[in-house]
Inverse folding.
């Protein structure tokens, strides 16, 4: 459940701390006051795409935090555990910081995270039903997604999709092999390329070792000269070596310890320095013994490197990718040389995949048919309450004629409606008016919302296109839904707002030539005034106020 929202420098909000509660919360305000601010901020906090335009004018960044109670949300708790995010007291903090330079930072419970992680977790915490969903409902893929969401069969969907993709992959391999016998030039090219790379006989890590050796051989003179000078300074020169001078200094300091015991630590440091200098000298001597001036070996190494780089240029790849390229070409050559055998194996795999797909697709179809019947009945019943008496809704499944397995199943899903008694069922996008489509969409959203696993649902002006008694019924339905999940409803209808358990009001004003917005909870008297404003518009009469009081009392 969403319990708290913190906004700083977001759009026209300077700073906002908002507490939210269980049940149904209505969010209202004048047109243009910024009722969508909360929605936009939450979408950003939950990993949505952000633009610097949302940063309040004159500031450097916007900071958004959303806090959720996970008490009854085991799926989110498990996600946090699996992704190594700690949480305490069953609370989850999602934070998003967007800077004016376009940089975005994301946090889960104070730990930095990726934007995709915010999205993944956000899907478990909150669902938004937008005001334009009724338009999307005209799309066939959206109709299929609505039915599948209600049916709650993600495993069936995943199985069908995976089998269809595997079938497509095997089919593509077969098509490639079918051209193998008729393309001798391709076979000859593969044989030549593989032979050339095999003759190169490149071994793992050879390139790295050759480059290291080439650098050492090419600078052997400089290495030997510089090492000799360094070793001479460290130890070789008996008169001026660092080791001799350090030993002399140590003896002098040790003679003074009896007089000044406090310099004992200095003597210890000198002893340590002598040991370290000797170790460095030994290592440098060992390295010098390995350096040799060998023009013949240098010539061979540089020739070998040129061979490798030339082969890489020929294949338009980096030298370190040559071995991987060789493996790929050998595998491709094997397929072409034994095309018949591979075709036979792939055909067997394809047949098995087709059988598996048909079985999985039938299971999916059975689940869809069962859910379609139930959902059609529920939407039809809701239509009677939403001002469409006698209307009927039906989801029809029609077998596809496609020979290729579809990742979406083996049937076409379409929504049909009869808006008035006595009229035949017709495709939704052919007959439904804007108002009818809005009410059907609202009925679908509220029904499918009961199937949602997320504990918080936001309805963004989904009641557009309705009014009167129908609006009151929509408010009742949303209130009824809020007994099971938390509901936040952005609305312009007083009939809907009056049904809410809690009421938030968005107000906007100008101060010091800057627009400022705020969201405040309304108590009883203020709530009556807001409902009256929504009822009466500019002029609010005593009768309008009484009507508002009556709506809230009822």
């Amino acid at each position: 459940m969403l319990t708290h929202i913190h906004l700083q420098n977001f759009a026209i909000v300077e700073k906002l701390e908002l507490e939210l509660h269980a049940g149904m919360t209505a969010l209202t305000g004048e047109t243009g006051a910024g009722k969508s601010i909360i929605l936009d901020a939450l979408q950003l906090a939950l990993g949505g795409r952000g633009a610097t335009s949302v940063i309040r004018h004159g500031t450097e960044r916007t900071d958004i935090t959303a806090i959720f109670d996970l008490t009854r949300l085991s799926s989110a708790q498990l996600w946090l555990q699996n992704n190594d995010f700690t949480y305490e007291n069953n609370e989850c903090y999602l934070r998003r910081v967007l800077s004016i330079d376009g940089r975005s930072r994301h946090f889960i419970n104070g730990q930095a995270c990726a934007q995709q992680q915010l999205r993944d977790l956000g899907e478990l915490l909150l669902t938004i039903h937008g005001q334009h969903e009724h338009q999307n409902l005209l799309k066939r893929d959206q109709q299929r997604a609505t039915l599948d969401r209600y049916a709650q069969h993600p495993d069936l969907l995943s199985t069908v999709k995976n089998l269809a993709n595997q079938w497509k992959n095997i089919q593509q391999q077969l098509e490639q092999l079918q051209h193998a016998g008729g393309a001798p030039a391709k076979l000859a090219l593969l044989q030549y390329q593989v032979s050339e790379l095999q003759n190169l006989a490149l071994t793992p890590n050879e390139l790295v070792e050759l480059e290291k050796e080439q650098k050492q051989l090419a600078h052997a003179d400089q290495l030997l000269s510089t090492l000799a000078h360094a070793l001479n300074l460290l130890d070789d020169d008996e008169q001026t070596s660092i080791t001799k001078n350090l030993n002399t200094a140590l003896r002098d300091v040790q003679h003074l310890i009896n007089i000044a015991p406090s310099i004992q630590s200095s003597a210890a440091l000198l002893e340590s320095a002598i040991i370290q200098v000797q170790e460095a000298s030994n290592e440098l001597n060992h390295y010098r013994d390995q350096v040799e001036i060998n023009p013949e070996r240098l010539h061979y190494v540089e020739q070998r490197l040129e061979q490798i780089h030339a082969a890489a240029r020929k294949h338009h790849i980096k030298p370190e990718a040559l071995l991987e390229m060789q493996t790929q070409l050998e595998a491709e050559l094997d397929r072409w040389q034994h095309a018949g055998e591979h075709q036979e194996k792939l055909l067997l795999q394809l047949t098995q995949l087709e059988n598996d797909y048909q079985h999985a697709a039938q299971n999916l179809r059975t689940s869809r048919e069962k859910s379609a019947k139930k959902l059609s009945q529920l939407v039809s019943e809701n239509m009677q309450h939403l001002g469409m008496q006698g209307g009927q809704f039906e989801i029809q499944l029609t077998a596809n004629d496609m020979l290729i397995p579809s990742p979406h199943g083996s049937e076409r899903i379409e929504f049909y409606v009869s808006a008035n008694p006595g009229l035949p069922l017709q495709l939704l996008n052919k007959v439904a008016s804007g108002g009818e489509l809005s009410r059907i969409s609202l009925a679908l959203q509220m029904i499918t919302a009961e199937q949602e696993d997320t504990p918080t649902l936001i309805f963004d002006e989904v009641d557009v296109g309705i009014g009167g008694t129908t609006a009151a019924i929509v408010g009742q339905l949303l209130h009824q839904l809020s007994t099971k999940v938390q509901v936040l409803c952005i609305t312009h209808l007083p009939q809907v707002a009056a049904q809410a358990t809690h009421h938030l009001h968005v107000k906007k004003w100008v101060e010091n030539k800057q627009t400022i917005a705020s969201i405040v909870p309304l108590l009883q008297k203020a709530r009556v005034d807001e409902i009256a404003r929504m009822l009466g518009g500019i002029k609010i009469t005593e009768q309008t106020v009484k009507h508002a009081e009556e709506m809230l009392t009822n």
User: Anything to note?
Assistant: The mean pLDDT is 86. The chain has 20 helices and 15 strands.
